[in-house]
Amino acid sequence: MKDTLLNGLNTLLMLNVFFVMFSFVWFVAALLGESFGVSLGFQLWLSLWEPVFTPAIGVLMGGAVLTGILGQIFKRLQSS
């Protein structure tokens, strides 16, 4: 059960990492476009910051901490 839990959590976090990286690339491209006067969706990105990107970053950070804690717990339970 613990392997299934950790694998599922790691898969979710991996997908979330790619989503966060995509959103960062979009932010950089849109910001550069905005500075050159080309509309690349900067206002759309800003409107999605609170409802979409902030929770994704929070899930990524919380999942990383949770994975580390679970890994330590399972490691200590195995050595006992």
Computed over alpha carbons, the radius of gyration is 18 Å
User: Largest sheet, if any?
Assistant: none
Q: Look at the helices and sheets and give the structural class.
A: mainly alpha
User: Quick one: how many beta strands?
Assistant: 0
Proportion of residues in helical segments: over 70%
What oligomerization state is this entry in? Answer: single chain
Low-confidence stretches: none
CA-CA gap between termini:
18 Å
Strand content: under 5%
Q: Summarize the helix and strand pattern as letters.
A: HH
Average pLDDT taken over every residue: 93
Overall shape: rod-shaped
What count of helical segments does DSSP give?
2
Keywords: Membrane, Transmembrane, Transmembrane helix
Transmembrane segments: 12-32, 52-74
Question: Can you tell me about this structure?
Answer:
By secondary structure, the protein is mostly helical. It has one domain. The protein is built from two helices and no strands. α1 (2-35) packs antiparallel against α2. It is rod-shaped, with a radius of gyration of 18 Å. The model has no long low-confidence stretch (mean pLDDT 93).
Blueprint (SSEs and pairs):
Elements: H1 2-35, H2 42-79
Question: Which labels suit this protein?
Answer:
80 residues; mainly alpha; rod-shaped
Question: Quick summary of this structure?
Answer:
The protein is built from two helices and no strands. It has 80 residues and is mainly α.
